[in-house]
DNA sequence: GCCAACGTTGGC
DNA sequence: GCCAACGTTGGC
């Protein structure tokens, strides 16, 4: 006689589970597990369940026999699962067949095959609808595993290889790279200032403040950034982001009590760990804004110049959307025509940065007519020209830039982009490319400049420092985390549908507009002109 | 024809 | 040897 169908909350509402014990035959006492889907389909095995749910649904942690989701239990767990040894001693093989179903079933439940796979409470409890499953999480939205080997951001399981060293935060490789990139741009933003306040409008150092008198380093690229006291952004100061008790911005030592959110992985649809949410933190920095606002179809609605009267709306954009996504999902495929991508490129400090300096000592380079990609070089705030067409594909920017079609691509540090010509055609593609997508030497090849020798810092301490400051927006970003020193890392790529900005006159006003929308958190037109001229 | 129950098999 | 997976059978 088959047991009654019972709810299986682990699979979600509507799912039923039944365990039928065999009462006769050679397999007497054995139990068969059946599931019934909300649509009434009967499933007899995990394979069938996977087939039914689709390959996207990972049933690795789903205990088919017990109908629960289980998480890996550390071997040191005090309530370790009884070993098979106990099973064998308690149930002689000969007596096995003489047992009636339920008794044998209980024995089987005590001895799951994957010894430490199932939480002990789960294994020892009868599986009934009323019995509280330890972790009855629907498969469609698995809860973050409490195990220490789970990425705090996306929840995926990590191998010990991925966390060889002790870290304050346990993040997978992708999430860590995203965080580092994010923090880099945060740091970048902090160094630039609003560009509109009276302090930012000061063009020259005062020469009398402590910074100037002491000739403290003012090298953004190196990270030793001590800005003239008279030129420190007042807005940032007002926000308390400058610490006047110290020389220079407090950026280097500023820490968030909670880490900014990282884009989760697409495969991980479950809620992210709350500690990575910063719902109370207004996303004003460009990178965060991009994370939050520039997304797929929402982009059209969110970008300031897309809809009529949208500029005013756009001022509110950073405050009303908090979307997060993974690196994979950040490769957005938008339906609107995408022709000339607009690449937002950041590169780690290194040779490219130096070559950019050669082109423009002030840090900016006016794009040349035959230049498509303009790299904003992290740290130097400089733009770098890259000949060739705008990359139409985010898959391989290096190849795309070697094409023949001309076009402008204006690179900005993850700044919300505005359509230049036809707002109704404006779409964007946000792409997160790892360094692997850009060939080493790509920049030098594209720019026609050979990168100077790279001064590489010892990786160990810096990486450790990086890891230990992952919730610090001003942390340094070790190149090895992202792709190696000197390797460009494209963090965001926008696509400008059918629009190519040919000269500064074309894009500066628009840039100014979008920057103004962005709460003055980045460059202004004036500052850009000053830098360019 | 449906479905519960049982048998068989191959992988581990 | 155990068991997941699945084929087969027989009752309804």
Automatic annotation (TrEMBL):
A Gene Ontology molecular function term of the record: zinc ion binding
Comp. bias (Basic residues): 83-97, 247-258
Domain MBD: 1-69
Biased composition (Polar residues): 393-404
Subcellular location: Chromosome; Nucleus matrix; Nucleus speckle
Protein name according to UniProt: Methyl-CpG-binding domain protein 1
Pfam families per the UniProt record, alphabetical: MBD, zf-CXXC
PROSITE patterns on file: MBD, ZF_CXXC
Lineage start: Eukaryota, Metazoa, Chordata, Craniata, Vertebrata
């Amino acid at each position: 006689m088959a047991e009654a169908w019972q709810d299986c909350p682990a699979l979600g509402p509507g799912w039923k589970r039944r365990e039928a014990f065999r009462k006769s035959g050679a397999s007497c006492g054995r139990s068969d597990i059946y599931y019934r889907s909300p649509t009434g389909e009967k499933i007899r095995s995990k394979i069938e369940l996977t087939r039914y749910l689709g390959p996207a649904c990972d049933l690795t942690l789903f205990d088919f026999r017990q109908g629960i989701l289980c998480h890996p239990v550390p071997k040191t767990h005090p309530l370790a699962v009884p070993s098979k040894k106990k099973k064998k001693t308690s149930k002689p093989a000969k007596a096995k067949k003489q047992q009636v179903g339920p008794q044998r079933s209980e024995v089987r439940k005590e001895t799951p095959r994957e010894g430490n796979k199932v939480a002990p409470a789960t294994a020892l409890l009868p599986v009934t609808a009323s019995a509280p499953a330890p972790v009855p999480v629907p498969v469609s939205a698995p809860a973050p595993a409490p195990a220490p080997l789970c990425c705090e951001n996306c929840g995926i399981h990590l191998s010990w290889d991925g966390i060889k060293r002790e870290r304050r935060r346990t993040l997978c490789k992708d999430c860590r790279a995203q965080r580092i990139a994010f923090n880099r741009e945060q740091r970048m933003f902090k160094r630039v200032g609003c560009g509109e306040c009276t302090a930012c409008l000061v063009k020259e150092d005062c020469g009398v403040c402590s910074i100037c008198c002491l000739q403290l380093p003012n090298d953004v690229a190196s990270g030793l950034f001590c800005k003239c006291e008279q030129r420190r952004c007042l807005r940032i100061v007002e926000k308390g982001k400058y610490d006047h008790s110290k020389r220079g911005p407090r950026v280097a030592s500023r820490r968030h009590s909670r880490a900014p959110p990282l884009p989760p992985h697409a495969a991980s649809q479950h809620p992210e760990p709350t500690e990575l949410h910063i719902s109370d933190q207004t996303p004003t920095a460009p990178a965060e804004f991009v994370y939050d606002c520039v997304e797929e179809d929402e982009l059209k609605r969110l970008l300031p110049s897309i809809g009529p009267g949208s500029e005013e709306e756009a001022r509110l954009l950073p405050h009303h959307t908090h979307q997060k996504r993974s690196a994979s999902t950040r490769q957005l495929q938008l339906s609107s025509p995408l022709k000339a991508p607009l690449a937002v490129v950041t590169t780690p400090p290194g040779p490219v940065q130096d070559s950019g300096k050669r082109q423009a000592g002030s840090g900016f380079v006016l794009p040349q007519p035959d230049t498509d990609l303009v790299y904003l070089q992290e740290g130097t705030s400089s733009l770098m020209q890259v000949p060739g067409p705008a990359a139409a594909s985010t898959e391989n920017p290096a190849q795309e830039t070697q094409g023949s079609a001309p076009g402008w691509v204006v690179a900005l540090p993850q700044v919300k982009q505005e359509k230049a010509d036809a707002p109704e055609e404006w779409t964007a593609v946000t792409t997160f490319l790892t360094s692997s997508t850009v060939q080493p030497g790509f920049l030098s090849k594209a720019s026609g400049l050979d990168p100077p020798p790279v001064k590489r810092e010892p990786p160990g301490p810096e990486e450790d420092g990086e890891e230990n400051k992952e919730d610090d927006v001003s942390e340094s970003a070790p190149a090895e985390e992202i792709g190696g020193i000197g390797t460009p890392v494209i963090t965001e790529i926008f696509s400008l549908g059918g629009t190519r900005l040919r000269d500064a006159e074309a894009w500066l006003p628009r840039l100014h507009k979008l920057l103004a929308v962005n709460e003055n958190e980045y460059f202004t037109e004036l500052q850009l002109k000053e830098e360019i001229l």
